Amino acid sequence: MLEDKKRWNKKYLEEKLPEEPSQIVKDFYNIAKKGKALDIACGTGRNSIFLQEKGFEVDAVDISDVAINKLKEKNPNINAIVADLDNYQIPENRYELIININFLNRNLIPKIKDGLKKDGVIIFETFVLNEESKTKDFYLRENELLRLFIDFYVVFYQEKDVIRNDGRKGRKAYLVAVKKC
């Protein structure tokens, strides 16, 4: 945990990161009922702030205390939590909306599913393994995200090539799904 925290703190101190909310969040947040939302690996809170401004009560979680402090400075109305997502317990049946943007921890998938209320919405965007990928553990395989949420009603799914913030080529998967039972 300490090494992860140091690495992410360094990233949030040194790198210029996007400030606009993710397009998939902007496009699909409104299919969720207003209520509680969870932003997993929220970083400095670009998506959390957007959701809070749209009327959600947001819990935002990240391992980086640097990122969480920046988020708290921008918007004190968000419940910003410093936590290692390897050990974080998502409360069951709590959220109308959970977003997971540019982060992958496969062990969280069952917790995400349990954390959503019936008719709750998951918005997920993260990288897919390709020839530019550095390590396989943090990248989805083709169609893996779709398979992980096959028990949900899938509203939108796409995989496409992208240019990453650092200029490298990448591939991303995008999923929006509703928990029906």
Automatic annotation (TrEMBL):
Query: Which is an annotated Pfam family here?
Result: TehB
Q: Which domain of life is it from?
A: Bacteria
Q: Which Gene3D superfamilies match?
A: Vaccinia Virus protein VP39
Where does the Tellurite resistance methyltransferase TehB-like domain lie?
Answer: 21-158
Which PANTHER family does this one have? TRANS-ACONITATE 2-METHYLTRANSFERASE-RELATED (PTHR43861)
Name of the protein in its database record: Tellurite resistance protein TehB
